[in-house]
Amino acid sequence: MTGPLPAPGLTGLFIGTVPPGLYRLPPTETASRVISLAAEADWRVATLPLGGVADKAGFLDRCAAALDFPQWFGRNWDALADCLMDLSWWRDESKARGYLLLAEDWDAFRKAAPKDARTAETILADAVDYWADGESPLAALLG
Prior knowledge:
Layout: E1 3-4, H1 10-15, E2 22-24, H2 31-40, E3 43-49, H3 56-66, H4 77-85, E4 98-104, H5 106-112, H6 114-131, E5 138-142
Parallel strand pairs: 1-2, 2-5, 3-4, 4-5
Helix pairs in contact: 4-6, 5-6
């Protein structure tokens, strides 16, 4: 489901030569560099720090807090999908060329809760597919 970011990497993602997708963050890249490159390309970035998250409840709580989800977020898989299909919580008045969700410490979460991580990946992949053909696509990097 999740694959490596194809060449030319982040630059290609942000200029549109690499299709938006659900990718592994290249090990040579840092969160600060990703955020900087995204900002230069007029992409909005939301960072999801997953350090210490070991289950579904923790993952959904972290999503709600770190991504500043709306009050109606129900802390379940369906509500996560709803938030990722309706990015109004993330948008502001200015137009972005794209949206990037950067999940940090994904491998630790995946090891602690493999089934929950697979479900979350499926939801992320569905959201990325949903926004793929829009003016402002969604991409996700799992670091």
